[in-house]
Write a structure and sequence with these properties.
The structure holds 2 protein chains of 2 kinds. By secondary structure, chain A is of the alpha+beta class. Chain A contains 2 helices and 4 strands; from the N terminus they run βαβαββ. Chain B has 3 domains: 128 residues, Fumarate Reductase Iron-sulfur Protein, Chain B, domain 2 (Orthogonal Bundle); 151 residues, no CATH class; 112 residues, no CATH class. Chain B is built from 20 helices and 8 strands. In chain B, strands 2-1-3-4 form a 4-stranded parallel sheet. A 4-stranded parallel sheet of chain B has the order 6-5-7-8, sandwiched between helices. In chain B, strand 1, helix 11 and strand 2 form a beta-alpha-beta unit. Classes of the chains: A alpha+beta, B alpha/beta.
């Protein structure tokens, strides 16, 4: 459940075109400590494919993905 | 720099030395014709941004290690040691160059700055001093090719959520799919970037037998200058096109993606086209019709360098624009001399880190667009679109920046 995830930083990526969501989330994850969580909010449907591959490449973990009307939220734990 | 590192980097340098590259490195007479050709120099006026100056940073290393005179008598041969300082200069030369090749059309010998800069990019990768974000984006794209199952379900859900938007632009018959994916035997594979709404509406309006690619079009391997990863990213789409047995691969509005697929994919059992070519074809064949009254304000068009000057797609956007408007205004009498937007070569993907440089270095582009008096500035490349939005805001140009494909979709007549 999302309520169980403590979010340490919100990264607002709404309206940003490719590749800005990945560029910004790469920076945003470095603003929290290892073990902390960011919530990345995007309107880019391509992020549904990009974020899992980015997490695997960068060594971080997507704890949960929420899809709402026009919005996609990723909860990402900094692992590396 | 230790000897082993230098030797490894020189091996990379040597691998790039084909006959064309040697010609480019040995031919420059410093005539100066390229001086005003670069939008960065024309906007900022610093010598280091002249194309021949950029070449010279690479050329002096070439002379030092690959030419007899430079090896024996470096000071006379203008040879330069490959050092950390040289790498810093290479970085500045290459990441202030968008690879637009405007200088190449002015050069009497046709020296290709982008090709010379590809040596610099490869050396930076070898020394691990390339922009980290470009490598991360590249590796993410490569990973997607290896792990389709990792994102397939989420991707399909995301695409399903877009279908309502497509139907708003073009109604489809009951039972039809607004965004078909993974259709074996489709005629056309469309390779998109973020979303596919306008393109999908136009394909459906034209009655195209199409399918959407699982992969994004952009090739970050080409931006960072890594030939191996460029090919891996390209092969994801080539393999998908062969698996689905499509006749045509259509690349979305992304200049680098189009140029890489068109020029580097080799002989394949499918044609490669840009979305702009396809839309012009639909209009010529009467497969779609557009409402000319939709856009009443004057329109100008920015030629994406990788699609126009480097890809040869010049007439098609103009055909589309003349179908959309009676007031299309050219920026340049000769489109091949159109200024670069200042965002290519991976510079837009570097984000806010280089925003100030991107704005200052593209003043000539902002001026060129404003001089037309147009109120709508359209283009056919996502990279250029992002840069033009930034320029519009920075220089208070007062235009509306639009994708050409979105304009076609908005003007579709049901």
């Amino acid at each position: 459940m999302t309520e169980d995830i403590k979010v340490d930083k919100v990264v607002d990526l709404k309206g940003m075109p490719c590749p800005m969501p990945i560029v910004k989330v790469s920076k945003g994850i470095k603003d929290v400590e290892v073990g902390q969580v960011i919530e990345a909010i995007t309107t880019d449907p391509g992020a549904l494919a990009d974020f899992p591959a980015w997490a695997k490449t960068s060594g971080n973990e997507i704890l949960k993905t929420d899809q709402q009307e026009g919005l996609i939220k990723f909860y990402i734990e900094r692992k590396a | 720099m230790d000897q082993k590192t230098r030797d490894d980097l020189l091996k990379l340098f040597q691998d790039k030395l084909n006959e064309a590259m040697k010609f480019y490195l040995e031919t420059c007479t410093r005539c100066g014709v390229c001086t005003e050709a670069c939008h960065v120099y024309a906007s900022m006026g610093q010598i280091k941004y002249i194309a021949a100056y950029r070449h010279e940073i690479v050329r002096r290393i070439y002379k030092k290690y690959f030419k007899r005179r430079g090896k024996i008598w470096p000071s006379v041969g203008e040879a330069r040691e490959l050092s950390e300082m040289a790498l810093e200069e290479l970085y500045e030369a290459v990441y202030s160059c968008t690879g637009c090749r405007r200088c190449m059309v002015y050069c009497p010998f046709g020296i290709d700055t982008q090709m010379i800069m590809s040596i610099a990019k490869l050396l930076l990768i070898g020394a691990h001093t390339e922009p980290e974000i470009l490598t991360l984006l590249t590796d993410t794209s490569v990973e997607k090719g290896k792990s389709l199952e990792l994102f397939k379900k989420g991707f399909l859900t995301g695409i399903k959520n877009l279908e309502k938007e497509v139907v708003k632009k073009w109604k489809i018959e009951a039972g039809e799919t607004a965004i078909p994916v993974d259709v074996d035997g489709a005629d056309l594979l469309y390779v998109a970037l973020a979303g596919a709404v306008p393109a999908a509406a136009i394909f459906n309006a034209a009655g195209e037998n199409w399918t959407l690619s699982f992969f994004e079009a952009v090739n970050f391997g080409a931006f960072v200058g890594d030939p191996t990863k460029t090919k891996l990213i390209l092969d994801r789409i080539v393999d998908e096109a062969k698996r689905l047995k499509v006749k045509e691969v259509c690349i979305c509005e992304c200049g680098t993606a189009f140029r890489v697929m068109k020029q580097l994919s080799g002989k394949q059992p499918f044609e490669v086209s840009s979305i702009t070519e396809v839309h012009a074809r639909y209009l010529r064949e009467g497969r779609i019709k557009v409402d000319k009254s939709k856009f009443r304000e004057p329109i100008t068009y920015h030629d994406p360098c990788q699609i126009a000057r480097n890809g040869g797609i010049i007439d098609e956007p103009r055909y589309i624009l003349n179908c959309l408007s009676d007031d299309f205004r050219e920026m340049s009498p000769e489109p091949k001399y159109n200024w670069c937007c200042g965002g290519g070569g991976g510079l837009v993907a570097l984000g806010e880190d280089n925003l100030d440089f991107r704005m200052k270095s593209a003043k000539v582009k902002a001026d060129q667009a404003q001089e037309t008096g147009a109120k709508i500035l359209t283009t056919a490349c996502e990279n250029c679109h992002t840069q033009l939005i930034d320029l519009n805001s920075h220089y208070e140009m007062g235009v509306e920046v639009k994708f050409l494909s979105s304009m076609v979709a908005d003007a579709l007549m049901q």
